[in-house]
Structure formats: structure tokens, C-alpha cells
């Protein structure tokens, strides 16, 4: 990319999309360099992307909007991986247990998805426009419905509407379990005490258990 002093405004739709993708890639790299970070500064994003702050705002209305687009990317990539992973089980994969294991393992393999989801209601949804929020919620709903359809394809005996209800609860589960499974340093030391070990959380294991419990509870009676 050009330095800010030699910046040339993108004219075509392709150039604008290239700039937007560059900003998202830069933001992703910034977050990977600081796994504990939950916020993104526009000034630093502009500096690392070699753009001016005003030009960053041509593509994103706020730092929250940048993170929201990253989360959309993460959910889309996860959904593609989910479908592939579910199919690997063959006939043995036609069970709630397989679905729960695959869901938990594919989600936990994407820590950025988990990090951003965990701050979705408290931070990401604060400073974006109504139109951007509608677009984001539509993308989120489409992923949720797609996952429910994929689950239903594995276990046809469970109505797709029931799987949609299961998926409705997965975002709150991630929001709660991710920070509990990744506590601050002192809190992590405290729950290592034998008498407090019951307060420890294992994100993948606990997510799989919660999802399995939900599916069993919503399964139609024999």
C-alpha cells in the first residue's frame, strides 16, 4: 500500500473493495499480535495500513464496524468448516454427540471468532449505524439457519425448527463460556486452588456438553 502522504483515492468498485480487504487484513494481523486485545484503535489501524484516519472512515464508520466485519468473515469461514467436518462422521456422525463435538471443536479452533462474539452485545454493537446493524444481524441469522439445516441433515428425526432454537442459544453460550474459560491471570490462579477447582471451565468441553444437553432437551419424544 502507499504511504499516507502518497495516498490515491480508490475510484472503482474493485479498488474500494481492495482497500476494504486490506484494512480488514491489517486489523486481523493487529489482533493476532495482541491476543488479549478486545478493542481496535482507528489511529493505529490507519498507521499500520499506511492510510490516513479520514480515509479509513471512508470504509468503516467506527472501529466496532471493522471488528463486526471481521466477525462476519469468521462466522462464514466457520460455517464452511462445520459442513465439511459434519460430513466426515459418515453414518456414525448421525447423532447429537457427533454434532456437539464437531460444533465445539470447530468453534474453539477459531479464537478470534470466540473473542469477538464474547464482546458482541457489550462492545461491538455500540457504535454502528442502523443499516450496518441490520446487515450484520441478517448475516448472523443466515449462518445460524445454515447450521441448523446442516444439523438437520445429519439427524433428520429432529425438526429443523428445533435445531434453529438450539442454534439461538449458542451465541449466549459462547459469550459466557469464552471469558470464563480464559480468565484474567489472578482469577486463573485462584481457580487452580483445589477447593475452587469446580469453578474452572474448559471452553470446548463445556460448550459441547451444553449443546448436547440442549439438543437432548429439545428432541421430540419417542
Automatic annotation (TrEMBL):
InterPro entries: Homeodomain-like_sf (IPR009057), HTH_TetR (IPR001647), TetR_C_34 (IPR041483). Pfam families: TetR_C_34. Residues 41-60 bind DNA. Keywords: DNA-binding. Residues 17-78 form the HTH tetR-type domain. One of its GO terms (molecular function) is DNA binding. This is TetR family transcriptional regulator. It comes from Variovorax paradoxus.
